[in-house]
Amino acid sequence: MSPATAVALCALAWAVFLGAHLALNGRWWPWLAVSLLPPPLFAAAPLALLLAAAASGSVPGAVLAAGCLLAGWRQSGVNPSAVRRGSAGRAGIRVVSWNTQHWNQGREPDRFYAFLHSLPADVYLLQEYLNGFEGGEVWDIDDEERLRREFPGHHLSVDNNSVTLSRFPPAGPPVPVGACSLRVDVRTPDGILSTYNVHIPVQLTVMNPLSRAFFADMRRRHEARRREYDALVADLLANPHPFLVSGDFNTSAAIGDIRRMPRTAHDAIGANRSLFPVSWHARWRLRLWRIDWVFTSAGVRAEQYAFRDPGGLSDHLAQDVTITTTAIEEMNR
Fold it and tell me: Contact at 8 Å (CB) between 78 and 276?
């Protein structure tokens, strides 16, 4: 077999895999395991095949590789907006969103709160307000007294294992969304803004992948994720107010579940200056996944968006976004 033929066959194999991925991803629950592949692979693989095709003179291989690169580009997690000239951004409302990984899990609480204070925000959206230990046992914790003491200028809302701290007064009681997320409407100077503190369940439990229990657990988690997305989308579509949605979606660009978000929710990644923005795993040197997201509606604009290293306090980087809401007042009329 000639090198050109080998490259063409490899490109064909990747094209078949990519076609199956695009067709089944987010629609067939067993594909959840496949969709956990690092998103850069969907750019790196066809690029490598394109180079190999050029070196071997394989025209069919080059055509297939180029087609795969275009078809799978949105799965790669690459942020084309990063190549644009950066701007300082305008002053606005600063929002910090962070999966705390079971709050502070017995670590030094002073370090935990010092990190939050290092990111002085108007609104904090904090996930996993719970604690646990090996074996999967989880119990509720009560840190509300310290939260009020540490953030005396913020209004506190706690539900669904989520904490929302807002410098702006609430426009109504907090609204649990599904079983894992929390909506809090706040009165900004420009009108009411709905904040959504989101945590979508993880896809898999670490166990023997060949066992029957593994597949039963994956299917159960798929259904749980679907229920959480359905509840979130239904609330967003029924909400008359402008909104900001942020949190741990446990969903990368390569996982089709993110397509469930309505068209009214716009990914804020265009305000990020990284070519390949990532948020997990914060304790690893090589980080390959962005599973934490920020979405905004019409009337809400992301001016700056960055990920902050929590210094070992969590496996998630913190999301730090500044938004402007000048159009909210008109939309609330």
Answer: yes
Q: Are 309 and 278 in contact (CB under 8 A)?
A: no
The DSSP string of 65-93 is HHHHHHHTGGGS---GGGGSPP------E
Q: What is the pLDDT of residues 269-310, one digit of tens each?
A: 999 999 999 999 999 999 999 999 999 999 999 999 999 999
Return the H-helix or E-strand segment holding 138. strand 138-139
Cα–Cα distance measured from residue 178 to residue 54, given in angstroms and rounded to the nearest whole number: 51
269 CB-contact burial (10 Å; exposed 0-12 / middle 13-18 / buried 19+): buried
pLDDT in tens, 308-319: 999 999 999 999
* Residue 121: its H or E element: none
Residue indicated by tokens 């695009």: 22
* Eight-state DSSP code of residue 299: T
By CB atoms closer than 10 A (0-12, 13-18, 19+), residue 238 is exposed
